[in-house]
Amino acid sequence: MVNINDPDALKAVIEETEISEASKADRITSSTRRAITEKMDEDPTFCKQFSQLIAETIRAYREKRLSEREYLNSVVDLASKVARKHRGRDVPENIRGNESVTGIQAAAIARQIIDIIKSHLIVGIWSNVSTQRFLLSLSR
Q1: What is each CA distance from 77 to 61, 94, 102, in whole angstroms?
Q2: Which parts of the chain have pLDDT scores under 50?
Q3: Domain extents for the chain?
Q4: H-helix segments, the chain
């Protein structure tokens, strides 16, 4: 097994010369899937997203849409993102690094924001300065 949380361990696998690039990718994929399985209870949304990305990468390789080198590069990139819990988008500064905010919590916050906006929908809001100020005050 490869420790995907250790960049040096990933680098060591990549630099191995006795095995093919596809074999290296398969080893890293196996370790990444294991890490995802272990983290599933913590953040199921994140884990499902990366499980799907890994499955798509494997499928593309098997369908010959990726070379062995591309397959390895894709798998290394996904493993690194799983290790860093990279979600592929910018995280607001006030919750960056706060691992207690899960995908489910973030979705709930987004729904609350949408509900607030919907409850204050006004035709011609862009010309209604007082309503714009009120909505801005809600975000502070």
Answers
A1: 15, 26, 22
A2: 88
A3: 7-84, 103-138
A4: 7-15, 21-39, 44-62, 68-84, 103-119, 129-138
